[in-house]
């Protein structure tokens, strides 16, 4: 799964390059999750996941608190969760997750981003079956053996543990997110370089230089859309 870790790093680097856009997306997601459940991360596991991920992107505390307070205040603003699937150059596969307060705006914008960048929208289910929902953690300051040991002590099974560039990467089932998180914290891990619930492609593809450049433009166009929260794909960006 090492190559898939590279894609996650690429995604984080892209988002770090546009912090205001990232913060706005997190504010929206935190508000939605806090409104759907309790606005308290201690009793709202979904909110805890979002907040842990927000921490790895250095989202300011003020933005987090403002979004939670908005949910507490009973705001009437509502968002729909949408998933779009499509293809990029050379048949590369893409999943787009969105949160929108205007469905009639979002679909045309996503379709336009695909169309202008050598891609096209697919029907529901045309791509998602080739991806697996996965919990991913990046841990520094521990060896892979250390991580495996304390996870085994907690009787937590994971899909894979690898070590790359002084970072231990843990891949687990989505429903093990909190178990892995707590086991790590009990072992003295206070911060994660990555703490994501993501979609990982079962098989990755490499694109020729021209197609890869066009694909990067497509991903950028999708991620720049206000309503788009996450973009997943199966392209290997290499080292």
UniProtKB/TrEMBL annotation:
Segments forming domain TACO1/YebC-like N-terminal: 3-74
Cell compartment(s), UniProt: Cytoplasm
Cellular-component GO terms for this entry: cytosol
InterPro entries membership: Integrase-like_N, TACO1_YebC-like_2nd/3rd_dom, TACO1_YebC_N, Transcrip_reg_TACO1-like, Transcrip_reg_TACO1-like_dom3, Transcrip_reg_TACO1_YeeN, YebC-like
Annotated ranges, domain TACO1/YebC-like second and third: 80-235
Statement: the UniProt record of this protein carries the keyword Ion transport: no
Source organism, top-level taxon: Bacteria
Protein name per Swiss-Prot or TrEMBL: Probable transcriptional regulatory protein KR50_02130
Record flagged with keyword S-adenosyl-L-methionine: no
Alphabetically ordered keywords of this record: Cytoplasm, DNA-binding, Transcription, Transcription regulation
Alphabetical list of Pfam families matching this protein: TACO1_YebC_N, Transcrip_reg
GO biological processes: regulation of DNA-templated transcription
GO-annotated molecular function: DNA binding
Family under the similarity heading: Belongs to the TACO1 family. YeeN subfamily.
Organism field: Jeotgalibacillus campisalis
